[in-house]
Design goal:
This protein has helices spanning about 45-55, 75-85, 100-115, 120-125, 145-155, 175-190, 200-205, 215, 220, and strands at about 1-10, 20-30, 35-40, 60-65, 70, 85-90, 160-165, 195, 210. The protein is globular. It is of the alpha/beta class. The structure holds adenosine-5'-triphosphate (ATP) and magnesium ion. Magnesium ion (MG) binds near residues 45, 46, 91 and 165.
Length: about 220
């Protein structure tokens, strides 16, 4: 499903120096496999998810999603693969302020499928406990509610791979379990692979596969 090979990513610092963040010799995630990613703050977890999603480009290496190396594609084709195959729950939500909860979830569908499935959007929002907030815009939702909308939106389009960057960081314990259950059961039913970043031990312990970025990233190993 996901294959990374010889993946390197660095940033240019304000002073012009190169800051290496990722050096991943090899990493694989199987079809419908569910894995969590752990690692200390600043070790490169978000950077890795961005590179996998094609939001940012690596310096070198292979990012294969469903057999296609997205690093070989131009930006437009990369965007299309992301829209079709990847669901992304951003650490900072990235909801559209001018649209309601229901519209935000439905907007997650339009790009790839060309049609909107309002029933699915309502169903997903119901499953994260937001049936009573369908018409609220993000600015009028609590932070935890916004995060739950972001979860529903990422699953709306039936992706093959779900990348989730601390999807329960702003959610209270009751809803944390509800969100994790929704993510895992939906992905199991629809054969979606999950790569989920968390700092919460009680979330990580539920997964069979637990990866520590420091253990497969040579840069982090040196830091
Ligand atoms: N655009 C950028 N330019 C320069 N440095 C950056 C840039 N983006 C990230 N970094 C640096 O790269 C490192 C990895 O950042 P990243 O956001 O991937 O960490 P993280 O593991 O997700 O941390 P957290 O757990 O706090 O979210 C950090 O030290 C950060 O300062
Ligand atoms: Mg991060």
């Amino acid at each position: 499903m996901l294959v990374l090979k010889g993946l390197k990513k660095s940033f240019i610092e304000p002073g012009g120096e190169r800051l290496p963040v990722l050096d991943v010799p090899e990493f694989r995630l199987g079809e419908a496999e569910q894995a969590v990613l752990l690692g200390r703050s600043g070790c490169g977890k978000t950077t890795l998810l961005h590179v996998i999603a094609g939001i940012s480009t690596p310096d070198s290496g292979v990012v294969e999603i469903d057999g296609v190396d997205i690093t070989k594609l131009d930006e437009a084709r990369r965007d299309r693969i992301r829209a079709e195959k990847v669901g992304y729950i951003f650490q900072t939500f990235n909801l559209l302020a001018g649209f309601s909860a229901l519209e935000n979830v439905m907007l997650g569908m339009t790009f790839a499928q060309g049609k909107r499935d309002e029933r699915r959007a309502r169903d997903l929002l119901g499953r994260v406990g937001l049936s009573h907030r369908l018409r609220h815009k993000p600015g009028t939702l609590s932070v935890g509610e916004q995060q739950r909308v972001a979860v529903a939106r990422a699953l709306a389009n039936r992706p093959r791979l779900l990348l989730a960057d601390e999807p329960t960081a702003s959610v209270d314990p009751k809803h944390q379990q509800q969100v994790i259950d929704l993510i895992r059961s939906t992905c199991r039913e629809e054969s979606v692979a999950i790569f989920l970043v968390t700092h919460a031990p009680e979330v990580a312990s539920q997964f069979d596969r637990v990866e520590h970025l420091e253990q497969f990233n040579r840069v982090a190993a040196l830091a």
